[in-house]
Write a structure and sequence with these properties.
binds magnesium ion, 29% strand, single chain, alpha/beta, binds adenosine-5'-triphosphate, Rossmann fold
Length: 146
């Protein structure tokens, strides 16, 4: 997916990327959904670690190796989806029963959103991650809702 031409935020370390996620959590309205777009190792899960911290979640956020969906409870319920292993079909997405877990207040954050049908069109934010050596160039895009 082509990156927007918005200003990019340069994070020089993983800690910086995590801090960006933590700060971003303060701007996210309740029940928002966020698509994280970028290659393997681009820093998506690192950003989610910061988001979780911002939501008062004490648990460590891992890159789920087998789980596609993980749920963390804090001030906000964080639903962390890693869609990498989904095949992009409606049936695979429906099997997650995502809607059943969308309690208020929540934040739904999806890595590899390209593999979750319609998500890129319906989410509230798209965040793009590009690797440049140790730096990650991160671009935030707020989506306009109809
Ligand atoms: N500036 C940086 N920001 C984020 N991560 C960085 C940075 N510099 C180095 N890293 C390292 O890059 C890796 C990023 O891994 P992370 O799991 O966040 O990527 P990911 O985009 O979730 O990958 P995947 O698609 O495999 O889930 C980590 O090992 C992290 O320590
Ligand atoms: Mg990841």
């Amino acid at each position: 997916m082509e990156r927007p031409t918005n200003d990019e935020i340069v994070c020089k370390t993983a800690d910086n990327t995590e801090a960006l996620g933590e700060n971003f959590s303060k701007f996210v309205a309740a029940d928002s959904s966020i698509a994280l777009i970028g290659d393997l190792g681009a820093g998506k899960t690192t950003f989610v670690k910061g988001l979780a911290r911002g939501f008062g979640i004490g648990e460590n956020i891992n890159s789920p190796s087998f789980d596609i969906l993980r749920i963390y409870r804090g001030d906000v319920t964080l639903l962390h989806v890693d869609a990498y292993r989904l095949d992009g079909s409606e049936s695979a997405a429906n099997a997650l029963l995502l809607e059943d877990f969308l309690v208020h207040p929540h934040c739904l954050v999806v890595e590899w959103p390209e593999r979750l049908p319609n998500f890129l069109q319906t989410c509230d934010f798209r965040i793009f991650f590009a690797v440049d050596g140790h730096c990650r160039k991160i671009t935030l895009e707020a989506m306009r809702k109809p």
